[in-house]
Amino acid sequence: MPFRIQIRFRDEASEVSTSSDIDRITRELQGRIADYQDHFSRVFAQYFEDLQRNFDGPAESRFTARSLELLGHLSLRGGKRQRVAFLYEAARLVTAEPVPGLDEAALSIELLQTHLLVHDDIIDDAPTRRGGPSTYYAYREEFPQHPQTALGLALLAGDLAAFLSLQVLLDSGLPVALRHALVDVQTRAAAATFVGQMFDLERDFPQIPSEELLNSVSDYKASRSSALAPIQLGLLVAGEDPVEHAETLRRYALMFGISGQMCDDYLSLFGDERVTGKPNTADVRDGRRTYAIRAVLATATETERVRIESILGRPDCTAADIDCLRDIAQHHRVDRELRSKMHRYAELACREAAGWRDCWHDDAVTFFERVPVWGVERTL
Amino acid sequence: MPFRIQIRFRDEASEVSTSSDIDRITRELQGRIADYQDHFSRVFAQYFEDLQRNFDGPAESRFTARSLELLGHLSLRGGKRQRVAFLYEAARLVTAEPVPGLDEAALSIELLQTHLLVHDDIIDDAPTRRGGPSTYYAYREEFPQHPQTALGLALLAGDLAAFLSLQVLLDSGLPVALRHALVDVQTRAAAATFVGQMFDLERDFPQIPSEELLNSVSDYKASRSSALAPIQLGLLVAGEDPVEHAETLRRYALMFGISGQMCDDYLSLFGDERVTGKPNTADVRDGRRTYAIRAVLATATETERVRIESILGRPDCTAADIDCLRDIAQHHRVDRELRSKMHRYAELACREAAGWRDCWHDDAVTFFERVPVWGVERTL
């Protein structure tokens, strides 16, 4: 692992030269992210505890209370909280002092994420999420005789999470202009994500989508809400206007997002199911033209392509089918090419962040510089 | 019709004494609402035209453009625009001068309504809405082989409409504190509505819900977003703080909402399908314990109740079943009792509005005073 990081950082040999330096940086990065996770877990748990008590809903409605409970379960099961780390570090770009409003911004980010996951699992008809039942399937379990009620409740719980995500900002007690700016960021990020998700569904219809198209999907679907918005929110809370840095932030988020999406897509097809927690058949069975599957289709011979298209979207797709697809991919070195590409995008993000040294705190700049490559490396 | 209005207004004999007065008031009311409808239709059509041009989405995504188109179709097919009339009249409570921001507030209200309708038709699996296909079924028509894609696109289009509803306020160029207050009203109204919709689903599970429970459902599901929020927004835009009138506005919205919901529920069961455009079997088939069905259940004999329960929720429920239910209802005078109740609630709303004369413009107060009873009368 350190060796590979050393290769990735080879262009910055003057800064990072020994494997013990890399170990130290990795430990530091992990330590900081873990601290944010710990802190935010407590904040989020407290939020849901308060919500159950103070929520403006009819006291006699069990369904309302249950929806808050299920939103809490899904939200508190976590995930990596990468967005939260981005938010806190973005504030540290500006100041090392604690600033009020960061926790509320973090809650907003993760509540919007909860909204997206709840609806995403309806769209994908997904039974599980974050190592537990999806909200949709939790309701299906509770209403085995009423699938339409289960669908309705899951959909409404997701809708509720979206507006709770804004309410937490509106109720933050921050200066009104700041509150307004934060809501504006989240509203745009949400709209972009829905567009990205539609575009993602569209991607699976044409024969072979271009890589540019997948980059654009990734931009709308992930980069803006997962990378750009958290950084914008962190800067805003710390008193900096992100509009003045719009271009570089957009580029950073885009490169980071593409790299991360490529990595996810790669792992879905080539990774170890025991590590990813997701069957390798999933993307193929759903006919998803991910970066990985697109790359195989684009380099395959005509015969191979016909074979791949016959597997894609088949509900009964087997492990042997996946092996066949992987063989074709490895024959054309698609897996190596993809690993190399995701590193290149991660490095582009790193270099973008390196340019922030002129105006922002060194310590946090280093975080944004390191995290894209580290994100790719730690999962491969 | 005038006669019945006269009866309703009997406590205000000094103000409204002749049938020609009533006719004049009715014509005035209709004229004002029609003017708002006309004006808003143009504003809304222009909004969707601009949206297609300026939307921040990937140019190459047909799915994105199509979602905006379908949201436009549903939105522009209209409905009564009662909320819009409430908004404009609420501003006129404060000032007869035109005030900037009213159109943006109207757009926000109707975009949120579009969001609610799109998701509601997924929840109810409803093929039609406002005399055309529901967004969900428009997509199902376009993707006959991919029902899950159709579901996903409809869900995402609905999500998008919700955030467009806020974006239009954020982009309004109004003073930032006002923008913030408007967003706050809409966010709370949306959250209340989701809760009301969950509560509405819950209502259909217990044996016989109490009337108080149905009032609470109506409060959350309809009153707040359809009556309270438009009035709050209109006052805010006109420079008045609705918080100072919170109690009377809440009571007005609640009474108006209950009366309207009772009226809808009554018509669903007892009304003329050719007028309502909705089969009389719909509520019964879906097992919906509406005000009307609850009232029949609550007054029926044990034998009758068993018979009604055997019909409720049956997908193959027939016109003959409905006739049987109606016979039971009429035997117990449930239909008359319900008509009388919805009038009483409408009158309570009228009286609440009458109290606004002390602080607000007479002309607009009269509107809010007249509209609840008129709303009931014109549909019965």
TrEMBL record, chains A, B:
The question of whether Transferase is a record keyword is answered with: yes
Q: Which Pfam families match?
A: polyprenyl_synt
Q: Pathway it acts in?
A: Isoprenoid biosynthesis
Tell me the cofactors it needs: Mg(2+)
Keyword list (alphabetical) reads: Magnesium, Metal-binding, Transferase
Q: Which InterPro entries match?
A: Isoprenoid_synthase_dom_sf, Polyprenyl_synt, Polyprenyl_synt_CS
Similarity comment = Belongs to the FPP/GGPP synthase family.
This chain's protein is named Polyprenyl synthetase family protein
Q: Which organism is it from?
A: Gordonia pseudamarae
